[in-house]
Amino acid sequence: MRTRTFCFRCVESKAARAIRALTMTMLILILGACSSRHDAGEKYYLVSANIKNTYWQAAGAGLVEAARSLGVGAELVGPENYDSRAEAQAFRDAAATKPAGILVSVTDPNVMKAPIDDAIAQKILVITIDSDAPASKRLTFIGTNNYQAGLMGGRVLAEKLHGKGNVVVYTMPGQPNLDERLQGYKSILGDHAAIKIVQVVNVKGDPGFAFDTTTQLLAKEPAPDAFVCLVSFACPEVADVLDRKKVSGKVLVAMDTDPNTLSWIQKGMIDATIAQKPYTMSHYGVLMLDSLHHSKLPSLEMPWSEDTRSPVPMFVDTGATLIDKSNIASFLKAQSPGARSL
Question: pTM for this one?
Answer without folding.
Answer: 0.84
